[in-house]
Write a structure and sequence with these properties.
Blueprint (H helix, E strand, L loop, with lengths): L1 H18 L6 H6 L4 H6 L3 E2 L14 E7 L2 E8 L9 E3 L11 H5 L3 E6 L1 H11 L3 E4 L7 H7 L4 E6 L3 H11 L4 E5 L6 H8 L1 H8 L3
Parallel strand pairs: 5-6, 5-7, 7-8
Antiparallel strand pairs: 1-2, 2-3, 3-4
Helix pairs in contact: 8-9
Length: 206
């Protein structure tokens, strides 16, 4: 238990430190339609001066996984994925659900996205409560129990084969409404190209 508390404290300190450099990713965030104030609310950051053990994440966007008890994980996204791996995780970290705080703030409906930035776009930019998983193959059985009491669960599937299979697998476990945006598209790309109202109209909850 003490080790877990210490680990959370260290993760929290790292997330806070990296968040102070979020301005370094402003151009990237603007290209994704994510204002700096939204990034700050999510405590996104940039690893400008890495903590010990984080040297391999230098220059990456830091994405903390925050629960009501604090930061439980950090994932790191490349700001230049054409020349390096898009995502890196903490060594030995278990897969977790992103933005679980929205489970508490949601009403009768909640969304599920692939990827943290799609989740953040839906939750903070569109204003639709949403949780996410790091990738199409990251769903765990106990996540289903977490969402079982919602009247409707919307799955925002990426427009590729893994995304469609992800949506189909959730549909086998939960009564979900699958919302697709077309081949090659995802929540963030559609938000950037068509805006918030288009997505809300697509969901049918305007």
């Amino acid at each position: 238990m003490k080790q877990n508390v210490l680990q959370k404290e260290l993760l929290g300190k790292s997330a806070h430190k990296y968040a102070e450099s979020i301005h370094l990713a402003e151009d990237y965030l603007v290209s994704r339609g994510i204002p700096l104030e939204v990034a700050r609310l999510a405590q996104l950051g940039v690893v400008a001066e890495p903590d010990v053990g984080h040297e391999q994440y230098t220059g990456r966007l830091s994405i903390p996984y925050i629960t009501k008890t604090g930061v439980v994980d950090i994932r790191f996204r490349s700001l230049n994925p054409a020349v390096e791996p898009k995502y890196m995780g903490m060594v030995g970290a278990e897969t977790r659900m992103y933005n679980v705080i929205d489970v508490q703030r949601a009403g009768d409906w909640i969304g599920v996205c692939e990827g943290e930035l799609d989740t953040l776009t839906m939750s903070r930019c569109v204003g639709f409560p949403c949780v996410g998983v790091p990738g199409a193959n990251s769903w765990k059985k106990h996540y289903t129990r977490l969402l079982a009491d919602f009247e409707r669960v919307f799955v925002f599937a990426d427009g590729d084969a893994p995304g469609r299979e992800f949506a189909n697998s959730l549909a086998r476990e939960l009564p979900v409404t699958v919302v697709g945006f077309g081949d090659g598209a995802d929540v963030n790309s559609v938000f950037v190209s068509h805006g918030k109202d288009f997505i809300l109209e697509k969901i049918g909850v305007q």
